[in-house]
Amino acid sequence: MYDQITANKRKSWLLILIFLALIAALGYTWGAYSGDYFGTLTIASIIAIVMALVSYYSGDKIALSLAGAVPVTREQNSYIWNLVENLCISQGLPMPRLYLIPEPGMNAFATGRDPEHASIALTQGLVQKLANEELEGVIAHELSHIKNYDIRLATLVVVLVGTTAILADIFLRSTHFVGRRSSRQGGSNAIVLLGLVLALLSPLIAQLVKLAISRRREFLADASGALATRYPEGLARALEKISADGTPLTRVAEATAHLYFASPFGNTPSILGRLFSTHPPIQERVKALRQMA
Q: Phi then psi for 101, rounded to 5 degrees?
């Protein structure tokens, strides 16, 4: 179990480095094409800083609002509150803000910027349909996202994806305006071609890297959650029930889909659907959990 946690952390940071290299390459070719390295780096930095600040301080509120989550107190639902509180005490975590999502589908997510500013949202269907040890496994999984700072990493990934897409779009739109100047300055055709290829492919590559990071973190949270409860079978059974249910959520945005415990769009049986899914196949997660038992 500890080996899997270590391996997933290492692979996630490797993917982050690939992400940064992609953005750096796009910025370099854009600067070479336009002949203004300083200007392009300034624009890229401003975009990244603004997006990062908004996501860091308001990303959790946006995600909860998009999901239609409603805050819950101990008096309103002592059963869920006590489950979360007991797991927090055992893991040495502060109590996160607790929310319920009025949806029949079975799902959950954690959000925030650190354990002191974190929230957990559970759907009504999840609370109603799972047995105690199964629900405890899902909550432990979400608390693991908080403890491992996956919630902050998820914000970073969204910022990187957004920055890549914006830079690529600016590059493509600016080619018409800077093309003449670049040609007068003797701009390299090879650099122009490389820049265009990167601008066209980088948003797709960025999205695939985002999906890969999200999947790695789900395996890590499964392992950490099983470690917290000392009962991997409970989480495995919860995953099987969610897969069998397959009810998609009605209020979910593509940008926040990677936050959820399982794909909020329901089962994705097609090969293309699995390729672009934010989560690894449930069968693989169940198999990994049962190998830990």
A: -105, 120
- Please give the C-alpha separations between residue 157 and each of 116, 166, 254, in angstroms, as whole numbers: 21, 14, 14
Q: Position of tokens 């929310």?
A: 99
Token pair in block for residue 192:
């122009």
30 contacts 167 by C-beta, under 8 angstroms: yes
Q: Is the alpha carbon torsion for 102, 125, 59, 274 positive or negative? A: negative
Q: How many residues does the chain have?
A: 293
Q: How far apart are CA 108 and CA 78, in angstroms?
A: 18
Pairing of strands 118-123, 97-101: parallel
The β-bridge partners of 119 are 97, 111
State whether residue 179 is helix, strand or coil.
helix
pTM exceeds 0.85? no
How much is the pLDDT for 180?
47
Separation between Cα atoms, residue 158 and residue 210, nearest integer Å: 8
pLDDT digits (tens, 9 = 90+) for 38-78: 666 677 667 767 777 777 788 889 889 999 999 999 999 99
Note the helical H segments in 1-149: 2-34, 37-67, 78-91, 124-129, 132-147
| Structural domain boundaries in the chain | 2-292
Query: Residues 228, 140: contact at Cβ < 8 Å?
Result: yes
Q: Taking a C-beta distance cutoff of 8 angstroms, is the pair 210, 161 a contact?
A: yes
The tens digit of pLDDT for each residue in 275-290 reads: 567 788 899 999 999 9
Active site residues: 142
Residue 34's pLDDT is: 66
Calculate the alpha carbon distances from 70 to 17, 61, 190 in Å.
37, 11, 54
- Percent of the chain whose predicted confidence (pLDDT) is above 90: 41
In the numeric block, the tokens 């999947």 are attached to 215
